[in-house]
Design goal:
Layout lengths: L1 E3 L11 E6 L5 E7 L4 E7 L1 H4 L1 H5 L6 E5 L6 E6 L5 E6 L3 E8 L14 E9 L5 E6 L5 E6 L3 E6 L6 E6 L5 E6 L5 E6 L3 E6 L5 E5 L16 E2 L5 E3 L3 E3 L2 E8 L7 E4 L5 E6 L4 E3 L2 E3 L1 E6 L4 E5 L7 E3 L7 E6 L5 E6 L4 E5 L2 H4 L1 E2 L2 H12 L17 H17 L12 H5 L9 E6 L5 E4 L7 H7 L21 E5 L19 H9 L10 H9 L23 E2 L4 E12 L2 E10 L9 E5 L3 E6 L3 E6 L3 E8 L2 E10 L4 E7 L2 E6 L3 E6 L4 E8 L10 E6 L5 E5 L3 E6 L4 E7 L3 H5 L28 H18 L3 H18 L2 H12 L14 E2 L2 E2 H12 L6 H19 L3
Helix pairs in contact: 11-12, 12-14, 13-14, 14-15
């Protein structure tokens, strides 16, 4: 990593409010204050990145300077294709610039290495324009202003105004487009983040919780979408009184993640445009700037920031921009300077190629985000391919005469199955285990006869099967009791990426072509958040013959399990089928048979895992149109009662009260079968099982207890117990966010404030939690409970108890050599860092001011040699 700060990039010592790198990576633009007007400057990026170019007198550093704005420029943004540059300022104007081939055109200024002229001036805002954003395919330009509005401009017909978005009650200071193009996000001084649907510009969501307690304001609130479209990172949020960059999850709009560490309000966030692969895992990279003059870089695959640069500027960070290759980051500040950070692929990861990225989008959203006409512009270079396509088209024409339009032949769903394999006069009625019925419609092919019978009935209308002119339906119901919805379908598999583009297309299709649950039901479940895991009996065996119904496995695939699918001379077989989710065809693209009824299922976009009544476990890796076994058939100690899939990790809970965990990617066992029968009481069931970061398994029970197995102690450690009298007597101290992995018991009523035993009970419970975290090697939780214990002792403890903890954190302070028995860290955390947080707690209590001064002075004396370089 290199940090560069070219002094020649400046606006004559005036503030720079915005910076943006051109998509080609050859130039970048800055916007801010000029001499007596707003200024936009286009610079040579190579002069910043390469020293030899910078020192070459024949290479211009400044390419063009435009002083057309009447007041300060707050934002500059290149279009995605790099054809235009948009700028917005305090003069209430948005100007769109284009490169002129005529030297010395309409640009004002002496720098004519390039000539950028104003091709459009957009007037519509009644106040200062603070932020701009181009839509993914440069169809629209969004601008936001202190007039509380957002204006959508037609980028193909400037200065045409598409619409004005009203809803914010405060200054709108940031806008960002969803990379898929479905949403636009905006953030305002009214302490809210709003998401708008681009289909009809209606509001989709209003998020206020992370911003309710924010005081003051910032000049800008630049938010950003992740390149995979799954998250929005906002500015100026608070968590526990500390400034954060809040992470908002797509579709559910949950706010349970954030980037923490900045000392002052976050002003801007910007995601790297690439989806990166580091150490075999896909991740995204985000840069966050704040008023504390610091810049932090985050990888979504890491819990801590990758890089933190303190005191980068003399004033607040106001804008950020990544180069197209993802290796260069520019940041600007109101102090009038620009900084550049250069990364390597080894540091942040290797970006996916354009094809890989489009394929990734297609799997998640059901469509490719590249130019829609890209596929039609591809040239067939191999004559054999051209010949094969012609032969395929001729066969298709002879097979289906109802489609005269040849453009329809390119649709994969119709080409793959012009005639349904299943009888068109039959559909399946499923009786679930709770007595409910579900009808699985079948695809009725659009034949010439069907076309004539529809007559003038509107396409897609609801009356296709209810008009008086139609004859009675010939569809008969075939009742099948062998397909039963099983309650053991895992709710803990890796969450699937939302298929937004796919969902939109599916809503427009008629019901008979959609087997499985309705899209509205799926969307309702998503919006409601992850439901609590079903209570699964750990000891009683599931009823034989039960299996999961259609289980969605990926954006384009679904897994269907049918027990008692066929009878043979040697027994009854169960069938597993992998079906195309968005295809009208009912032909499976992969299927296999098992010799025993399936009782448990866990699947996600990559793996399908099932357990059978005979106690066998099977696992496959899903890849496009096939599946490959990742494990041989494994004989469990007893029949599986629950399967849980998290990433590459598969956990199985058996009816014999045993837990085993495998790594599917490595085809290896992580945790050998562990028995927890002694932890179960009568009627108690397992509600959750997962694997912690250190490899120790955790189980949660329906009675509110949870346990973590410590392989060091060869014992189950009590992690939570809502019925613990000590915990209840102490009033139930709150747990940190990390502890919410366990089951969430209902918090009991706190003990009376003046109980003699309440304070001591709380101390006892906190000490138990602290010991558990220490032996389980949970560093973050250890620090939380240590701080909680220290805070409790400052209110209810005595001086000796406080000194015992403070002395351990401070260490020896009056000797030159450090004794071996004292370690400067605990679980990888520096004790002096913990001591600083403890002193911040201690200073709030007036009665401990002498104690605070004593330890604060000693800590300062210990750090002085380090600060002086000794």
């Amino acid at each position: 990593m290199k940090l560069l700060k070219p002094s020649w990039v400046n606006h004559d010592d005036k503030p720079i409010f915005s910076v943006d790198i051109h998509p080609t990576g050859k130039r970048f633009a800055t916007g801010g204050q000029g001499g007596d007007s707003g200024r936009v400057v286009v610079w040579n990026l190579n002069s910043v990145l390469y020293e030899n170019v910078e020192l070459d007198p024949n290479v211009p550093k400044m390419l063009c300077q435009m002083d057309n704005h009447l007041a300060c420029v707050n934002c500059v943004r290149w279009s995605n294709a790099g054809r235009y540059l948009a700028s917005g300022g305090d003069d209430r104007l948005v100007m769109v610039w284009g490169l002129s081939v005529v030297a010395g055109g309409a640009s004002l200024g002496k720098h004519k290495a390039e000539t950028w002229r104003c091709i459009a001036t957009l007037r519509g805002h009644a106040g200062d324009v603070l932020d701009l954003a181009w839509s993914p395919l440069d169809k629209w330009l969004a601008s936001c202003s202190v007039d509380n509005t957002i204006i959508i401009w037609n980028a193909e017909k400037f200065p045409e105004m598409v619409c004005v978005l009203n809803g914010h009650t405060g200054l709108v200071k940031g806008v960002a487009w969803d990379p898929v193009g479905k949403y636009l996000a905006s953030q305002s001084d009214d302490k809210s983040l709003r998401v708008w649907k681009t289909a009809d510009w209606a509001p989709e969501a209003v998020i206020t919780e992370p911003f309710d307690e924010c005081g003051g304001t910032t000049h800008v609130l630049r938010l950003s979408w992740s390149p995979d479209g799954q998250y929005v990172v906002s500015a100026h949020a608070l968590n526990g009184g500390g400034p954060t960059a809040q992470v908002v999850e797509r579709d559910t709009w949950r706010c349970d993640k954030d980037f923490v560490g900045h000392r002052k309000a976050v002003t801007c966030a910007r995601f790297n445009n690439n989806i990166l692969v580091k150490e075999g895992k896909k991740c995204c990279c985000a840069a966050v700037g704040a008023r504390d003059r610091a810049l932090s870089i985050w990888l979504t695959s890491l819990k801590r920031p990758l890089v933190v640069v303190h005191d980068l500027f003399a004033d607040s960070v106001l804008d950020l921009s990544w180069s197209a290759d993802g290796l260069n980051l520019l940041a600007c500040s109101s102090d009038g300077t620009v900084a550049c950070i250069q990364f390597t692929n080894k540091e942040i990861g290797t970006p996916l190629t354009v094809d890989e990225k489009n394929s990734f989008y297609e799997k998640i959203y059901g469509k490719c985000l590249a130019n829609d006409s890209a596929m039609s512009n591809l040239l067939v270079e191999c004559p054999e391919i051209l010949l094969a396509r012609e032969q395929s088209d001729s066969r298709r024409d002879s097979r289906d005469t109802s489609f005269s339009d040849k453009s329809q032949q390119s649709k994969p769903a119709l080409a793959a199955s012009p005639v349904s394999a299943r009888p068109v006069d039959r559909q399946i009625e499923t009786r679930t285990s709770d007595g409910k019925r579900r009808i699985t419609p079948v695809f009725i092919p659009f034949t010439a006869v069907a076309s004539e019978s529809l007559g003038s009935i509107p396409s897609g209308g609801e009356n296709c099967f209810s008009t008086s002119s139609q004859s009675k339906s010939r569809i008969r119901v075939e009742k099948r009791d062998d397909i039963v919805i099983h309650p053991n379908v895992s709710n803990h598999a890796t969450p699937l990426p939302p298929n937004n583009g796919l969902d939109q297309r599916l809503r427009k299709r008629s019901a008979p072509s959609l087997p499985g649950p309705k899209i509205e039901e799926v969307a309702a479940k998503r919006s409601a958040g992850a439901p609590p895991a079903p209570s699964v009996p750990a000891l009683p065996a599931p009823a034989l013959g039960q299996a999961g119904p259609v289980v969605r496995a990926a954006g384009h695939l679904r897994l269907q399990v049918i027990n008692k699918a066929c009878n043979t001379l040697y027994g009854t077989l169960s069938r597993l089928q992998l079906l195309q989710n968005n295809s009208a065809s009912t032909d499976p693209i992969w299927e296999t048979y098992l010799g025993s009824p399936v009782t448990c299922i866990a699947c996600d976009a990559r793996y399908a895992c099932v357990s059978c009544a005979d106690g066998t476990l099977h696992a496959w890796r899903l890849h496009r149109a096939t599946a490959k076994r990742v494990l041989p058939p494994i004989a469990l100690m007893s029949q599986a009662s629950k399967l849980t899939l998290t990433g590459d990790i598969l956990a199985a809970v058996t009816t014999g009260a045993e837990l085993a965990i495998w790594d599917l990617a490595e085809a290896s066992c992580l945790v050998k079968p562990l028995c927890f029968r002694g932890l179960l009481a009568q009627g108690v069931s397992v509600t959750n099982c997962s694997l912690l970061e250190d490899g120790n398994p955790m189980i949660a029970l329906s009675n509110g207890k949870s346990y973590i197995y410590c392989r060091k102690l060869y014992a189950w450690v009590v992690w939570a117990d809502c019925r613990d009298p000590v915990w209840r007597a102490s009033g139930g101290p709150p747990a940190p966010r990390a502890l919410r992995l366990a089951a969430r018991p209902r918090r009991p009523a706190p003990a009376p404030a003046h109980s003699n035993y309440s304070a001591e009970a709380a101390r006892s419970w906190l000490e138990a939690q602290l010991a558990s975290c220490y032996h389980l090697r949970l560093a973050r939780d250890y620090r939380h409970w240590l701080t909680a214990l220290f805070t409790h002792l400052t209110n209810h403890g005595n001086e000796d108890q406080l000194r015992a903890i403070l002395d351990d954190m401070l260490g020896p302070s009056h000797c030159t050599s450090t004794p071996k028995k004292w370690q400067s860290t605990v679980l990888g955390i520096k004790k002096h860092d913990i001591l600083e947080s403890m002193l911040s707690v201690l200073v709030r209590q007036l009665r401990w001011q002498r104690l605070y001064s004593e330890y604060s002075d000693q800590l300062t004396a210990l750090k002085a040699p380090l600060l002086n370089g000794h």
